[in-house]
Design a protein that fits this description.
Blueprint: H1 2-15, H2 21-34, H3 39-56, H4 60-68, H5 72-78, H6 118-124, E1 128-132, E2 138-142, H7 148-153, H8 166-169, E3 198-200, E4 218-223, E5 230-231, E6 251-255, E7 261-270, H9 280-295, H10 304-320, H11 325-337, E8 374-375, H12 380-393, H13 399-409, E9 413-415, E10 428-431, E11 442-443, E12 448-449, H14 502-513, E13 520-521, H15 527-531, E14 543-544, E15 549-550, E16 575-579, E17 586-590, E18 599-602, E19 606-609, H16 610-619, E20 629-630, E21 647-650, E22 654-655, E23 662-663, E24 670-676, E25 686-691, E26 700-703, H17 731-735, E27 744-745, H18 753-770
Parallel strand pairs: 10-16, 11-22, 12-19, 15-24, 23-26
Antiparallel strand pairs: 1-2, 3-6, 4-5, 4-7, 6-7, 8-27, 9-10, 13-14, 16-17, 17-26, 18-25, 19-21, 20-21, 24-25
Helix pairs in contact: 1-2, 1-3, 2-3, 10-12
Bound molecules: S-adenosylmethionine.
Subcellular location: Chromosome; Nucleus
GO molecular function: histone methyltransferase activity; zinc ion binding
Main location: nucleus
């Protein structure tokens, strides 16, 4: 009977997996019921539905049987020549037979050709044909034929005959070299058996990382897709020398002629380690966290996946360009011309072409500083070593190495939170160049009155019409703007997303860039000149009348989360104080991308009268001070200003993170805008910094102090400007900066290549943005 022969066939097919007829038959019955006696569904794909159903039962018997199938008896009686693209490790009794439920324990047998289909598979399908000889060793043969099955299973042409299902290849979050359409790393129409252009076999790994020969409890795990398979490569007998059996190593890269890249990370672990295959997503996350922890300076959007993509990009590039004259030239320059750097300290940085806007032209780039200079000389092997270094850090059996690495990678000086809990978010401080510590000052998140300044926040001063007591929730989402939008022409200065509105911001930027075109107030009796004992006949130099933002305040009925309360909620972006490489001392940078119009921080310090500040400056001539700000945005609104009403903020002794913001002439990326928070009285207001454009993570945050570098009479001696802006007002000094027709890079002493590479890429990004 046709049915009986089909049952017999199915049982025979399952026998290969060591599953007995008694187990198969009831499951088969169920399936036939489910599929309405349609055998096609059961037979399709080498009885995959049946295999699934059997294993889905989680029948302990199945497991027992599967284990039994590894017994010597089973091996001799049941082992069959197989065309399965899976292969044995050939270790005899304790081998990781693909017939078992899996020695690793969690996986079911991979889909494979049944014995009955061997003939068909042998001609149609296996890219690598696996044969088992008497000693159960395995030989590999190339067969230049393909089947839909293999296309489905994305066989990796250059190496192991490992079968991965389409799903297994799909990464959890993202896919290496993903195809937009279907998110698979390799296209379906990939010509199979395309030999790789090249395969990188890394330099021998440190002994602790090598796969150990011999005992069967040692195997190499290969993370080829989502890391869902472990195979043991140790005892493969290779007939065809073109097919490389994986060296015991950590990383391999291979590319096909079409440009597809495969990266394999290989790790050996003792079987008893309790190791379970993690998802690739989890692995990447751990490495990224580790990277961020160890290197601190890493782009917060850094992802290992992108790094690997870069590796692939470089690998392809390196593989396709045979002679790179420019690089050779650069290498020569490197050895002769590195200031203060030993040749063996240098590494070549592989800059992804997207950073170079696809031009790959290095001629216009300039040297950054004596500490950080550049070479762009792609060399994927060195890049790979960087990755290996990351990989070493992950080895749980190599704690000493890991600790050593961490010691090496840490910055020379690091403070976890300079705010000591004053701000909502920690603000770290990092010095990668020396052990210079932060200046002595007291971190405060709100300005404080130092004594003589006349600053009073009085509820009665807030007129009924200047606030919105009847509002609730978010004023910016109300249909009709409330009274608090009055100051900014009936429209709130902020968008509902908390950014300064584009038109308002542009106005402020234009006033800042071209103050002469905007309204100034000229005092007859200028408090600034009074404080400096400079009585000048006639009017003063003038004060720019600035546009104010008015936020909702105490008397308003809205929520603290109201969109018109931005500055008063404090710093919300991740910031870091760092030692600038250009010699400007400490600087402030963002650790996250910020859109145009974002609030960064306000200038916080001691609220002092002009008069007091001048006296302070006189007293502390030697003191390294910050630049105090003058709160003169609305000095024209009252007649003659009393000394105690003419205020400044001095962050020298008490201040917040803004005291670290460096100056940049004209094209700084932040602008200061006066903000009313507590009082309509414009003697005192908040001076808040907003981004003038999109600012990328790790970019330095700067503002134009408005210094007149030619004013030798200014109470605070101007510094030599190192802003490197092409609009620098201190050009005499800027021009003396050396310009080079090439870039080269010196690895800072005691730093790893990964550290150096990250720094280099970040700096290059900055350069490309700036210049
Ligand atoms: C407000 S502080 C900025 C933080 C400062 N870099 C530090 O290390 O504390 C101002 C001082 O920084 C330095 N500075 C700021 N901008 C600079 C620039 N463009 N070029 C050189 N030095 C700068 C000057 O010494 C200035 O007096």
């Amino acid at each position: 009977m046709a049915g009986d022969s089909k049952v017999a066939k199915a049982c025979k097919a399952m026998k290969i997996y060591g599953i007995s007829e008694e187990t198969v038959k009831p499951v088969l019955n169920n399936l036939l019921n489910v599929f309405d006696n349609n055998w096609k569904f059961i037979e399709d794909d080498d009885y995959s539905a049946l295999i699934d159903a059997i294993f889905d039962r989680e029948d302990p018997k199945c497991k027992e049987e599967a284990q039994l199938s590894q017994s010597p008896k089973d091996e001799t009686t049941e082992a069959k020549p197989s065309s399965s693209p899976q292969y044995y490790n050939g270790k005899g009794k304790n081998s990781n037979s693909p017939l078992s439920c899996s020695v690793i324990g969690q996986t079911r047998p991979s889909k494979r050709c049944s014995s009955d289909q061997n003939a068909e598979c042998a001609t149609l399908s296996p890219l690598i044909h696996v044969e088992e000889n008497e000693e159960t060793s395995v030989s590999l043969k190339k067969v230049r034929k393909t089947s839909t099955y293999e296309r489905e299973t994305r066989i990796v042409p250059w190496r192991e005959a490992k079968v991965m299902s389409r799903d297994e290849f799909l990464l959890k979050d993202e896919v290496l070299y993903s195809d937009e359409k279907d998110h698979r790393p390799f296209a379906d129409d990939l010509p199979l058996l395309v030999d790789p252009l090249a395969v990188i076999h890394p330099a021998p790994a440190p002994p602790a990382l090598l796969c150990e020969e011999g005992p069967s409890d040692v195997g190499c795990s290969s993370f080829g897709g989502n890391g869902s398979e472990i195979q043991d490569f140790n005892h493969l007998h290779v007939e065809d020398k073109e097919i490389a059996v994986p060296e015991p190593s950590q990383i391999e890269i291979a590319a096909s002629l079409k440009g597809e890249i495969k990266i394999a990370l290989i790790r050996n672990l003792p079987q008893q380690s309790g190791f379970r295959i993690p998802s690739l997503g989890a692995v990447l996350k751990t490495v990224e966290d580790k990277f961020l922890k160890s290197y601190k300076v890493a782009h917060p959007g850094f992802s290992l996946l992108n790094l690997l993509k870069d590796v692939c990009g470089c690998y392809l590039k390196e593989g396709t360009i045979s002679v790179d004259v420019e690089r050779v030239g650069l290498r020569n320059v490197l050895s002769a011309d590195v200031p203060g750097g030993r040749v063996d300290d240098q590494i070549n940085i592989c800059i992804p072409s997207n950073l170079l806007n696809g031009q790959g032209n290095l001629q216009n780039l300039v040297r950054v500083s004596p500490q950080i200079s550049w070479s762009v000389a792609p060399n994927p092997l060195e890049f790979l070593h960087c990755i290996q270094e990351l990989n070493v850090n992950q080895n749980p059996y190599d704690v000493r190495d890991r600790e050593k690495m961490e010691r090496q990678q840490s910055p020379l000086y690091y403070v976890d939170d300079i705010t000591r809990g004053e701000e909502k978010h920690k603000i770290s401080l990092v010095n990668d160049f020396s052990s210079e510590t932060e200046p002595a000052f007291k971190y405060i998140s709100q300005s404080v009155n130092s004594g003589n300044a006349d600053v009073k926040f009085v509820l009665a001063r807030i007129a009924e019409g200047d606030c919105c007591p009847s509002c609730f929730g978010d004023c910016t989402s109300a249909l009709i703007p409330c009274a608090c939008a009055g100051e900014t022409g009936g429209e709130f200065a902020y968008t509902p997303g908390g950014l300064v509105r584009e038109d308002f911001l542009e106005k402020c930027i234009s006033m800042n860039q071209d103050p002469q075109q905007h309204i100034h107030f000229y005092c007859n009796d200028c408090p600034l000149e009074r404080s400096q004992d400079k009585y000048v006949l006639g009017t003063c130099k003038g004060h720019l009348l600035m546009k104010f933002i008015k936020e909702c305040w105490y008397r308003c009925g809205c929520h603290m989360k109201c969109g018109n309360r931005v500055v008063q909620r404090g710093i919300s972006v991740k910031l870091q104080v760092y030692m600038t490489p250009e010699g400007k001392g400490w600087g402030l940078r963002t650790l996250e991308d910020m859109p145009k119009g974002s609030f960064v921080c306000e200038y916080v310090g001691e609220i002092v009268s002009n008069m007091d500040l001048f006296e302070r400056n006189l007293r502390n001539t030697s003191e390294k001070h910050t630049y105090p700000v003058l709160l003169d945005a609305d000095w024209g609104s009252e007649g003659i200003l009393k000394d105690e009403d003419a205020l400044c903020l001095d962050a020298t002794y008490y201040g917040n993170v803004a005291r670290f913001i460096n100056h940049r002439c004209c094209d700084a990326n932040m602008i200061e805008i006066p903000v009313e928070v507590e009082t309509p009285d414009h003697h005192y207001y908040h001076l808040a910094f907003f981004t003038k454009r999109k600012v990328n993570a790790l970019e330095e945050l700067t503002w134009d102090y408005g210094i007149d570098f030619s004013d030798l009479n200014h109470p605070i001696k101007a510094f030599k400007c190192l802003c490197r802006s092409k609009f620098c007002r201190n050009m005499k000094h800027s021009k003396s900066m050396p310009f080079h027709s090439h870039l080269y890079f010196t690895k800072p002493a005691g730093k790893s290549e990964v550290f150096a590479m990250t720094l280099a890429v970040c700096e290059l990004e900055k350069l490309l943005l700036i210049d």
